[in-house]
Amino acid sequence: MPIDLYYATLSPPCRAVLMTLRQLNLDVNVITTDVHKKESWPPQFLKLSYPQHTVPTLVDDGFPLGESRAIMQYLVSKYAPNSDLYPTHDLKKRAHVDRLLYYDMSIWYAIVNATVMKIFRGVEPTESALKNFKKNFNVLNDFIGNNKYVAGNELTIADLSYLATISTLAINDYKDLDEFPNVKNWFFRVQKELPYFDDVNGKVPELWKQHSSANK
User: Where does the GST N-terminal domain lie (predicted)?
Assistant: First the structure.
């Protein structure tokens, strides 16, 4: 029985979950869901995503779960418990992955305030938003350092989460990464290692361009 994933392409958390499913080679039924159009929601979505009604929402053998990071941790813990993707066998390594995984939220909000709001609302970012963007990316740049991956020398779900989040910077053709060489090198190198990356994230640049054109 395939896993159901209620999904929206432009949502980085959704794409992070889908990449995790692909990395684990799990059978998934992707159900495209526009959370902004309640009338288009699949009948079961309201019940399964209660009380948040957000995507991603995963349903595994009747068990519904929201929040991308919780979903990613659950999937690896259940289907690949000895994997370095989320090292449940080593508490310290797992805690470091968690640390990086949750810091991704700071990166996401920095991107939203510095770039995404301009696309959706036509509002220029404030000086504070731009400074916060630079501050948070400098931290990520230092976290990566000379590591092969975000949390060390093994691919983890933290990498998948950041890859999805930073793909949003396709809005500006990734020029925002020029000041952060460790982040930039990691981003373009690691995505080439993942055979499913383009399939999951390839439509993002064009979709952002469509949103940008619609709001001009």
Answer: 1-83
